[in-house]
């Protein structure tokens, strides 16, 4: 559960909701053809995970996202990872108003879409 | 055998010279339009770098093309494909590199580019571009690419010179670009057309002018990129 202070009271946004927002934006990211399975299984009970997206509190405030993705074969992975990072953090910040302190992009696999 | 190699080598250097000329035309056009394209960049992330990314991508391509020795058509195409992969910048640059890769792979090994060849090239460009995204949004560079492929397919059997075909593509592209304004709510709100699509059209127009032997520098009429 992530907390945001507003003038009229506190706003709680669940990690699940944040993960959903991140996942939707991942679907439209160029180069991403699928979501990975998420790595940190041992933390699965502590934190909400939705497919390839893991949400955790940032060490110095804000939230941290870990995105596990499958990238299209034949693309420059570093370039795709950079654009995924910027697009997803922009979208999550825009929709939730929370600060995204860090985005880890993990490429689980590389494959053709068809 | 020797003569085959020589023919291949001559063909490769002719092909290379042509691709260099077209890439240079596209680069010069992007240099001129870069700031306007950057200004349109409100989607997906309003970071105003689409024009810059496209320009850097095309410049890198041209550098690779200039460094390539024409030892054979296959080698040139392979080097070119690698350059496209390694030096694309940003989402628009990555998509542009897919578009170029598709067209280069489908280009006829020899002979002029007729209606069918052009349609096949653009369809391969479209397929390469669409192959790397799970849920393509409408009103982007991808939409424009799809419309260009449709246009080329529709005219493939007509007897037309390549210049006329390219002019028709530019015209279709202008209509499609204008439509992106209504296809994406973020663009409608900002009253702009899509930056990546605008960049692709700038490249296409420059290539059409270069093929027709018209001066690339006087790109009139100016695009109505931003609604007043």
Architecture overview:
The complex is a heterodimer of chains A (114) and B (228). With 114 residues, chain A is α+β, with helices and mostly antiparallel strands. Chain A has a single domain, classed as Cation efflux protein, cytoplasmic domain (Alpha-Beta Plaits, 2-Layer Sandwich), CATH 3.30.70.1350. Chain A has helices at 15-27, 77-96; strands at 2-6, 9-13, 32-35, 49-50, 53-57, 63-72, 100-111. In chain A, strands 3, 4, 5, 6 and 7 form a 5-stranded mixed beta sheet that branches. In chain A, strands 1-2 form a two-stranded antiparallel ribbon. In chain A, a hairpin with a 5-residue loop joins strand 5 (53-57) and strand 6 (63-72). The longest helix of chain A is centred in the C-terminal third of the chain and has 20 residues, at 77-96. Chain B is mainly alpha-helical and 228 residues long. Chain B has a single domain (2-211), classed as DhaL domain (Serine Threonine Protein Phosphatase 5, Tetratricopeptide repeat), CATH 1.25.40. Chain B is built from 9 helices and no strands. Chain B has helices at 2-40, 50-67, 73-87, 90-106, 115-130, 141-154, 162-183, 185-190, 195-211. In chain B, helix 2 (50-67) packs across helix 4 and helix 5 runs antiparallel to helix 6. Chain B is globular and about 60 Å long. Chains A and B meet through strand 3 and helix 2 of A and helix 4 of B.
DSSP strand tally of chain A: 7
Q: In percent, how much strand structure appears in the residues of chain B?
A: under 5%
Structural class of chain A: alpha+beta
Number of structurally distinct domains of chain B:
1
Span of the ends, CA to CA of chain A: 38 Å
Fourth-level CATH superfamily of chain B = DhaL domain
